[in-house]
Specification:
Helices cover 36% and strands 14% of the residues. By secondary structure, it is an alpha/beta fold. The chain folds into two domains: 17-222 and 343-408, 3-Layer(aba) Sandwich (Rossmann fold); 250-254 and 260-331, formyl-coa transferase, domain 3. The strands form three sheets. The chain has a six-stranded parallel sheet with strand order 3-2-1-4-5-6, with helices on both faces. Strands 7-8-9 form a three-stranded antiparallel sheet, covered by helices on one side. The longest helix is centred in the middle third of the chain and has 22 residues, at 178-199. The protein starts with 16 loop residues before the first strand and ends in a 5-residue tail after the last helix. Keywords: Transferase. One of its GO terms (molecular function) is CoA-transferase activity. This is L-carnitine dehydratase/bile acid-inducible protein F.
Length: 413
């Protein structure tokens, strides 16, 4: 794999350096967002590499293609953090950084010799984002947790299901590690906010801050009116399958070719256009369906009528007809539709990236899009330890003999 030019950056975070002590999903996802916008992210991996490199279908000798995107725009350094010499190297790297992001269990950073005091001594004003299952304190602090646990205790898993009367199967998973990713997103947002407080042009206080991001709380914060409704009315929001409990019609409807199409016709003008397209303009005047409240009350019959119409058409036919009628709708995309979608392609949200490990790989683009200073995919995710010598030489200041000794003793790889 040719060495990328790590000095050529772009994006609004160019000049920012972040140290990632992360593994699996949450911290690496947050640091990737920062790297995409131009930050120099140094990722420290344990010997053998981040375990997530082996998640999913793999290419022999290269690992999982997801790592091409998950680790992109980062520099990888392998250190055995059980060795005190590795901790000293981490502190020297910290001395060059603006922020650190990690997702160890609470207290683990301090047990490794990287407590707040030592980090602050190495880099006054350092911002530290700590991601954990339940947070750095509280009665659940020491309980083990992954993203799925955060999704369950945060209320999401209960709602990702059909109504109880329709299924006795377990609540389904969203399909991706959404709890981890939301926590990583909050950590990235918190890092930028803390750096603004530290460095803003007028009134920056120069202080570092420690951010406490819990998977459970990150999910709970996304749960809309679930908690306020319980507090006000004592009602427990229930799963609604593909519907929205407070608006109708808004669901997925079958097509003649076995696909699903999402239709959101829950305003009066849109509902009138939908019923006209169905050849049933009378439905817009039917007392059962006049106004959103009535439609929600009679949603079973309404969805039956729409489904009986939708199943007479292919997904592609419906997609075209509904778009022309200005009714919010879309086919339920798989990876195949996403990869060829002209909107995603035109905005750079589906990009072809040449990866020496995997060949031509499709990556999701960069969010947010900053038109006048966009970030870019500078290089795909490197192999574990690909930048070890470069970082130890250029950032830590070690010479070739010192680096060779660390490799010989298993401290670095």
């Amino acid at each position: 794999m040719p060495s990328p030019d790590t000095t050529q950056t772009s994006g609004p975070l160019t000049g920012l350096r972040v140290l990632e002590l992360g593994h699996f999903v949450a911290a690496p996802f947050g640091s990737r967002l920062l790297a995409d916008l131009g930050a120099d992210v140094i990722k420290i991996e344990a010997p053998g590499g981040d375990p997530v490199r082996q998640w999913g279908r793999q290419v022999e000798g290269a690992g999982a293609p997801w790592s091409s995107m998950h680790q992109r725009n980062k520099r990888s350094l392998v250190l055995n953090l059980k060795d005190p010499r590795a901790i000293e190297i981490v502190l020297r790297i910290v001395g060059t950084c603006d922020a650190l992001i990690e997702n160890f269990r609470p207290g683990q950073l301090a047990r490794m010799g990287l407590d707040r005091e030592r980090l602050e001594a190495a880099r006054p004003g350092l911002v530290v984002a700590q991601i954990s299952g339940y947070g750095q304190d509280g009665v659940y602090r020491d309980r083990a947790a992954f993203g799925v646990i955060g999704e369950a205790i945060g209320g999401l898993r209960y709602l990702t299901n059909h109504p109880p009367s329709m299924s006795d199967l377990p609540p389904v998973r969203v399909g991706v590690s959404i709890g981890d990713s939301i926590a990583g997103l909050y950590a990235a947002f918190g890092i930028v906010a803390a750096l603004w407080a530290r460095d803003r042009r007028e009134g920056g206080d120069g202080r570092g801050r420690t951010l406490d991001v819990a998977l459970t709380e990150s999910v709970l914060s996304m749960m809309e009116g679930m908690l306020p409704e319980y507090g006000a009315f004592g009602t427990v929001r229930q799963p609604t399958g593909s519907r929205i409990a407070t608006a109708a019609p808004s669901s997925a409807y079958p097509t003649s070719d076995g696909k699903w199409i999402l239709i959101a016709g829950n305003s009066e003008p849109i509902f009138a256009r939908l019923t006209a397209l169905m050849g049933r303009p009378d439905l817009a005047q039917d007392p059962r369906f006049v106004g959103n409240r009535a439609r929600v009350a009679n949603v079973e019959e309404l969805d039956r009528l729409i489904g009986a119409w939708s199943v007479e058409h292919t997904a592609a036919e419906l997609d075209k007809l509904l778009a022309e009628a200005d009714v919010p709708s879309t086919i339920a995309y798989t990876a195949a539709e996403i990869a060829t979608d002209p909107q995603f392609r035109s905005r750079g949200m589906v990009r072809e990236v040449d990866d020496p490990l995997f060949g031509k790989v499709l990556h999701a683009g960069i969010v947010p899009h900053v038109p006048d200073d966009p970030g870019r995919i500078r290089w795909p995710g490197p192999p574990a330890g690909f930048h070890t010598d470069e970082i130890l030489r250029d950032v830590v200041g070690l010479d070739a003999a010192e680096i060779a000794a660390l490799r010989r003793d298993g401290v670095a790889a």
